[in-house]
Design goal:
5 strands; Nucleotidyltransferase, domain 5; five-stranded mixed beta sheet
């Protein structure tokens, strides 16, 4: 499914970090099992936060987009919860140019950041709107808790952990997509993973004069 995956040894040791980071409540049955049949037929959008403490760049909110067909996830980081409109327009322009088609339906919750007059008028003129209980994928939040706990990285690096986890998960198998990774289903290109680094590993940066 990917290029450059190293040989991995199967371990039977119980990972305490995973147990700590992946505790969850029982899944809630969904009203519908419908899934999109093409890219951008349905896009999920949600804002998560506020994050405490704020990130090193003073951002406190995570804006996520998930393509229902490929399950590919994009994340953007905001200073204020009420400012997702400009980011959504930039996202929409970027992904529509990339795949050569338009977003058909946008699914959000009833948060005020998505029900403003400006946002509503823009969406009503070009796409369908659907209201549901959206959120950043639970697997991503689990992974973020795991890597922060394992490496004892300060919580001010949470947004970096989110970005790292989303990048890895887009290139990893998922039960929601049966015919490749999310990245390959989205782009049509089998992803490489030989450049991956462990989150929290020591890095040396050369700063130019």
């Amino acid at each position: 499914m990917v290029i450059g995956l190293p040989s991995l040894k199967i371990s039977t040791v119980v990972c305490t970090t995973c147990l700590v980071g992946k505790q969850h409540r029982e899944s809630i049955s969904k009203l519908s099992s419908w899934h999109a049949s093409t890219k951008l037929q349905l896009v999920h959008d949600d804002v998560c936060g506020p994050i405490s403490p704020a990130s090193n760049s003073h951002k406190r909110y995570i804006l996520s987009f998930v393509d229902d067909y490929s399950r590919k996830t994009w994340v953007y980081f905001l200073h204020e919860k009420s400012k997702p409109f400009k980011t959504f327009k930039n996202f929409k322009t970027c992904v529509e140019k990339e795949v050569g088609t338009h977003i058909i339906c946008l699914r959000t919750d009833r948060g005020g950041e998505f029900t403003s007059k400006e946002f509503t008028n823009f969406c009503n003129s070009i796409l369908l709107r659907s209201v549901s209980c959206c959120q950043l994928p639970g697997d991503t939040l689990n992974a973020v808790r795991v890597v922060l706990h394992e490496k004892q990285v300060p919580k001010s690096f949470l947004l970096e952990a989110v970005q790292w986890c989303v990048h890895v998960q887009n290139r990893s198998p998922t039960t929601a997509v049966s015919h490749g990774t999310s990245e390959e289903v989205w782009s049509g290109i089998k992803p490489r993973v030989d450049y991956f680094q462990i989150f929290g590993c020591v890095a040396h940066v050369h700063i130019l004069d």
